[in-house]
Structure formats: C-alpha cells, structure tokens
Write a structure and sequence with these properties.
The complex is a heterodimer of chains A (about 180) and B (about 400). Chain A is α+β, with helices and mostly antiparallel strands and about 180 residues long. Chain A has 3 helices and 10 strands. Chain A has helices spanning about 15-20, 35-45, 140-145, and strands at about 50-55, 60-65, 70, 75, 80-85, 85-95, 105-115, 130-135, 150-155, 170-175. Chain B has helices spanning about 30-45, 60-65, 70-75, 95-105, 150-165, 165-180, 195-200, 230-235, 260-275, 280-285, 295-305, 310-315, 335, 340-355; strands at about 10-20, 55, 85, 110-120, 205, 210, 220-225, 240-250, 285-290, 370-380, 385-390. The complex binds zinc ion (ZN).
Chain lengths: ~180, ~400
C-alpha cells in the first residue's frame, strides 16, 4: 500500500516546550492603511448616515461598496449614487468565537446583506452588498432560516460617535412591518 | 475532443511522497519539504540529478512565521542551482502546484519537475486563527473583528438554504472522510464517528461545528512530473495530467451568491475541455474534491459537475460517493480525515489519485475500475479554484 513510508515525528505541546532551541517571537508590525479614492468617500458618507455607491456607465450597475473601476467592464466608474441602505439578508450565521478563536460571552450574528441598488437583476449571482452584524434577530432565526430573505436596514450610531468607519453602522436590523425605506 | 494542441510535451506524474500529517511535528518546514521530496523521488526511482526544475507551494508566510517561504523552502525541495518558482493562491495552492509543474513540462521548458507543497501551521500559537486576521480587507472587513470561520459558515448557511440541505446531510461527509482515513498511514484525524458526534461537537460559528472542519496540521507532500519520453522510460504506469484549470472569482465575496462555487465550474470547464471530457459526471471514475469543511466537498462535487446543483447531499446519503460507490470521493480520507497542512493537503489529494489510478492504494483502493480522476483545491477569500484531471 502506498505511501509505504511517512516520515515525521509528532510532538505534543508540552514536549515542544522541553526541546532545546525553541524560539518565542511576537511580531510588532504596525500599519496605517489609507482607504483610497473610492472608500474614503464611502466612509465620509457613512459619517453622514448615507451609503454611497458608484455607477458604472457601461453596465449601469451601482457598485456597493464603491470602487473606482467596474471589475465587470474594467472601465472607470463615474457618478456617486446614494442607496437607501435597505436590502435583504442573503445569508446569516451565529458566531460563538472571536477573532483568535476565544469563546465569546455573548454570541454575535453576522450576515451578508444584498442591498437595493440600481443595475442589478432581482436574483442575480453578482449584487451590491455589505457584510455586517445583524441585530434584532435571534440565534433561532438563523437556525430556522427565518432570517434569510428578511428585509433589513442599517442602524446608525449616534452622529457624535461616528468616525467615518464601517462601524458607523452599528448593525443591520429588520424593517418594521409596513416600514418603507 | 481534446483541445491541448499547443502542448509540446505530454505530462505524467511518475512519483509521489508524503510526510506524516500531525498537529505538531518536530521537523522544520524545510526538513518536511526534504522528507516529502525524498519519498517522491525514490518512489519514481530518480534522484535530484534527474530533475530539471522545482515548483514549491506554500500558503501564507505567516503560518510558518518565515517570510519568503519559497526561498526558505527551496533547498529542502531540491531548489539549488536550478530554476525554482514558488506558487501561492491561498488554499488553492496545493493543486496549483501540479498545475504550474504541468506547464513547466508541457511547454518543453523542463523534462522533469519536483513539485512540493509544505505547511507548518503549529508555529503560530495559541491558534493559527489569529494569523488569518491579516487576510481581511483592512478598511471594510477587519474592523468587524472577523474570524475566518465566519465566511465559511456564511457560505455553508447559504448552501443549506438554497439546496434545502440539513446539518445531518452535510455531517455525513465528515463521517465518510474520517472513516476512509482510517486506512491512510499519514492520517491525523481518522476516526469512526457518527452524524450525532458531529452535531454534538463544539459549535464554533453556527452552522459550523468542530467536527465539520479539518484540523490544523503540519506536513509536506511532493510529486515528480515528467515529459512523456522520460515518463515512459522510468515507469510502466505513468499517470497522465490530461487537463488543468484555474480561476479566481470576485474578491468582493459579499457581492456574489455563495450557494454555488462559480470559481470552480470555470476552472473545471477549462480542465475538462483540455482533457476532452464532455460529461464529467459519467466519465470521471474517482475524485478528490477539496474538503477543508464537510459542506465544501458537496459544494465542490457540484462545481466539478460530478452531480447536478443541490443533488450532492442526496447522492451522498445513497452511498454514491463511498469507496464502494459509483463515484468515490476523497477515498483517501481528504482533509477532514488525513489533515490539512494547507498547500501539502492539495498535493496529498493529487497523490491519492495517482495511487488510486495505479491500483496502489491498498486498503484505500476504490472498488470499481478507475481510469480518469479529478482533484480540486480552493482558497483565498473563497475565490480561487484550481483543478487537475488525471488519467491512465
Ligand atoms: Zn460595468
């Protein structure tokens, strides 16, 4: 039976600590990222409580998040177009762990929101959308699938707390019955 | 009809080797590369003198914790005074390694290539998850504090919704692959488990639970590829690389439907066209779809067009993808069973097909006669698709 030989020696974490020459190292790299042409404007919009997209004059899609080029046509986008921020939940999950896999005290619900934006067909494969936290929905809504397709809108942070960040949107929350955005 | 008319040399795999896959190995990354390389060369009856070019694949440098990992790994991979290239397309790297090795030979540039995949994930602690933070967009994604499992869970949830697949349906992949791995000498996560065990395992990001995921691993795997003339000289049973394909989908992953792996369909169409395969669901005898998560095997079976969309869970339940089934998938145990040292895992899947097509897999050998096979890998922010089609 192949493979006939599989070299390698397994060691447990405790064994590793006992080996000579184990080096500990914590990188201290620091970065400051610029948001670029398109996202700087987008973030300024968030500060004002507005979600901005950019129009591709060639395929007429409004791209959210905005980019300076349309990747479908590979041509420059032109006008800024404000979208309402309303949309429907495409998919949603409940996270019980944080960024370094630590257990969270309170689980978070995260989703992808398909935004209402001109130029995209109703159930198109590609769409305008954001990835964000969801509030006002339960773990059970995620499990049962009730949350998928649900109409949602952004819940904004109070004006004085906004910093021009994706976190100026606190989360996306369900529209009230008969609420029009 | 085959479309690879511009190919100068037909390409075969003539040797394969693996190290053990484990959560933590004593060996350094380059020692692992060396061990796998040595196994692959000796299985082909060749030495480094017989090798013209080297292809090394490894995923983010941050895992091993060494920048320019390609250069670091080069001498352990035989990359000394020879043309060497390092390949990296995230999780897709493992199958991109034989793809790139293929064009080295097919172009006529090299007669023989040693192709190596290596990953040492145990260096990062307490858990390599922390290292994944740097793959996210710094402006729109990282502020949300994402865990990498989020996106896979989002994709799995969407697939479950669109295909009406249950957690139980999907858990069967984990049960099958971990069971298959019981016969694999390198396996890290082989186990006899039940659907219930998967459903009772730690919930990480619902719907993803601990036993839905492949483990964190160290390991290396290597292949020797050769031109037709060399291949016919060194072996009676060359395994031909009949087709290769690779595609990237949109990096704005939250701007596309996650229910279907479009990146893979495009890559697979490219590879099948080259191989002259028109009806993969009938022509492919055995497959190694990329399975870092259990739902991904189903997703990829559909993207490889081995089943209709949303049909994979039903076929799985009927035993269609078992080792004794009509189209065995991950007969070696896959990433869920053998382990997931990222770049090495993809190479391991191609190595498994190499052994299957030569009837050398012993207890892992599938029951049916096999002639054509396909493997894929997937990675980056869910958009890289890499495919190879093999035949005897
Ligand atoms: Zn356009």
């Amino acid at each position: 039976m192949k493979p006939e030989r599989v070299p390698g020696r397994y060691i447990r974490e405790e064994d590793l600590r006992r080996l000579p020459g184990v080096i500990e190292y914590t990188p201290t790299a620091r970065y400051s990222y610029s948001a670029g042409q398109a996202l700087s404007e987008f973030l300024r919009g968030l500060k004002d409580g507005r979600i901005l997209g950019k129009l591709c004059p060639s395929c007429r899609r409004v791209l959210v998040p905005p980019r300076v080029y349309c990747e479908f046509c590979f041509t420059p986008t032109t006008e800024w177009v404000e979208v309402t921020g309303a949309g429907r939940v495409e998919t949603a999950v409940t996270s019980y762990i944080g960024a370094a896999r630590e257990r969270l005290e309170k689980p978070e619900i995260i989703g992808v929101i398909r935004l209402d934006a001109p130029g995209h067909a109703e159930n198109s494969f590609d769409f305008a959308g954001l990835f964000h936290k969801l509030c006002g929905v339960t773990e059970d809504d995620v499990k049962s699938g009730r949350v998928i397709g649900m109409r949602v809108k952004p819940r904004w942070k109070p004006v004085h707390e906004r910093m021009g960040s994706i976190l100026d949107i606190e989360c996306f929350e369900p529209l009230q019955p008969r609420e029009v955005v | 009809m085959k479309s690879n008319i511009f190919v100068k040399d037909k390409v075969a795999i003539v040797g394969a080797g693996l190290t053990l896959f484990r959560r933590r190995l004593l060996e350094t990354p380059r020692e692992l590369a060396w061990e796998a390389s040595r196994e692959a060369l000796s299985s082909a009856g060749l030495t480094l003198k017989d090798i013209d070019c080297i292809v090394v694949g490894s995923a983010p440098d941050a895992f091993d914790g060494i920048h320019m990992k390609g250069e670091y790994l080069a001498d352990g991979s035989g990359g000394f005074n020879k043309p060497v290239v390092r390949v990296f397309v995230g999780g897709g790297t493992g199958v991109m390694v034989p793809v790139v090795a293929w064009w080295h030979v097919a172009s006529g540039l090299c007669k023989t290539v040693l192709a190596v995949g290596e990953e040492k994930m145990s260096h990062a602690y307490p858990h390599p998850q922390g290292v994944f933070a740097y793959i996210w967009d710094p402006i729109l994604e990282r502020p949300l504090g994402p865990n990498l499992i989020w996106i896979f869970a989002l994709e799995m949830r969407r697939y479950m919704h669109v295909c009406n697949a249950s957690k139980e349906d999907i858990a069967l992949v984990s049960v099958k692959n971990k069971r298959n791995a019981l016969d694999h000498p390198a396996a890290q996560a082989a186990a006899k488990i039940t659907v219930d065990d998967v459903l009772k395992s730690e919930v990480l990001v619902w719907p993803v639970q601990l036993l839905d995921i492949s483990p964190v691993s160290d390991g290396a795997a290597a292949l020797v590829l050769a031109s037709e003339s060399v291949a016919r000289r060194v072996t009676d049973t060359p395994v031909w690389v009949e087709g290769i394909g690779f595609t990237l989908d949109n990096t704005h992953w939250y701007n596309r439907d996650l229910a279907y792996p479009r990146y893979l369909e495009y890559a697979a169409r490219m590879a099948y066209k080259m191989a002259g395969i028109e009806r993969p669901w009938k022509e492919i005898d055995v497959a190694e779809p990329y399975d870092p998560f259990d739902y991904k095997e189903l997703h990829h079976i559909e993207g490889l067009m081995l089943a209709r969309r949303c049909e994979a869970p039903k076929l799985l339940k009927e035993g269609y993808f078992d080792r004794s089934g009509e189209l065995p998938t991950s007969p070696g145990g896959g990433l869920l069973g053998v382990g997931n040292p990222i770049a090495a895992a993809g190479v391991m899947k191609v190595a498994e097909l190499f052994w299957q097509l030569r009837y050398e897999a012993g207890a892992r050998q599938v029951k049916k006669p096999v002639h054509k096979a396909v493997a894929n890998a997937w990675g980056d922010l869910m958009q890289a698709g890499t495919v190879v089609v093999l035949s005897t």
